[in-house]
Design goal:
This protein is α+β, with helices and mostly antiparallel strands and 252 residues long. It has one domain: Phosphatase 2c, domain 1, CATH 3.60.40.10. It contains 7 helices and 11 strands.
């Protein structure tokens, strides 16, 4: 049985939860979405909700497109740009929210194929047995320095540029999200999450939580608990699903 679940909790020192997420099975495909409104920006929580709701609405209106791997990049890119326009439109109609923005990471799993579109520093991971692979690149200053060979991955974890995003939804530009496609094996776990999780858990924490893979809700709850124990003060969001040949069962 393919099981999927999600957890979205407010950080212990946060006044509001600027993360949003949603997951559902449409036309036999598992669709997962995570967004993180920018902390310190006006109405970040509204921007993340608009992004998630717009993308899920696009999936629901165009379910046949979820089976069309050949045109998946164009389909997801169009969804990102529609969400971007909705965020800008809301900000124009509500001056107190003008300038709001958000990250957005989306995954569509169709049997053994996985498609991902991504902007910002929310992440997608693939968990295969005891191997954990980060599937997306962060769009922040620190990650740019790593890719340029100017700092190491360990240095990036504490670099002030890790909190400076260079690509978001909410800008008045045409967006071209990063797009990835991967082959899956039955038993693999796909996980989307916000930085409130991955910045505060280790590879060992991931592996321990994945030992609960028969109950995806427990996997998500275990990771959230480990992030809080690891000192996370940010909002924590996780959406995870397994790849197996049978039907999905969702647990929120």
């Amino acid at each position: 049985m393919r099981i999927y679940s999600e957890v979205c909790v407010k950080g212990p020192v946060r006044e509001k939860n600027e993360d949003s997420c949603e997951s559902n099975v449409l036309n036999g495909c598992l669709c997962m979405i995570v967004a993180d409104g920018l902390g310190g920006e006006v109405s970040g929580e509204i921007a993340s909700k608009i992004a998630v709701k717009t993308m899920m609405a696009e999936f629901e209106k165009n379910m046949d497109a979820l089976l069309d791997g050949e045109h998946m990049e164009e389909f997801l890119s169009a969804g990102f740009n529609k969400a971007n326009k909705e965020i800008i439109r809301y900000g124009s109609a509500h001056p107190e929210s003008k300038g709001m923005c958000t990250t957005l990471t989306v995954a569509v799993q169709n049997d053994k194929k996985l498609y991902i579109a991504h902007i910002g520093d929310t992440r997608a991971y693939l968990c295969h047995h005891r191997e954990i692979q980060k599937l997306t690149n962060d769009h922040n200053k620190a990650a740019e320095l790593v890719r340029a060979g100017l700092i190491t991955q360990d240095e990036a974890k504490v670099h002030p540029g890790r909190n400076v995003l260079v690509k978001v939804l909410g800008e008045n530009v045409y967006l071209k999200p990063d797009f990835y496609s991967y082959n899956l094996c039955y038993g693999d776990i796909i996980m989307l999450c916000s930085d409130g999780l991955y910045s505060f858990v280790s590879r060992e924490d991931f592996i321990e939580a994945l030992g609960l893979r028969k109950d995806m809700k427990l996997v998500c709850e275990c990771l959230a608990e480990k992030a809080l124990k690891g000192g996370s003060t940010d909002n924590i969001t996780i959406v995870a699903g397994t790849c197996t040949p049978n039907d999905y069962i969702g647990v929120k």
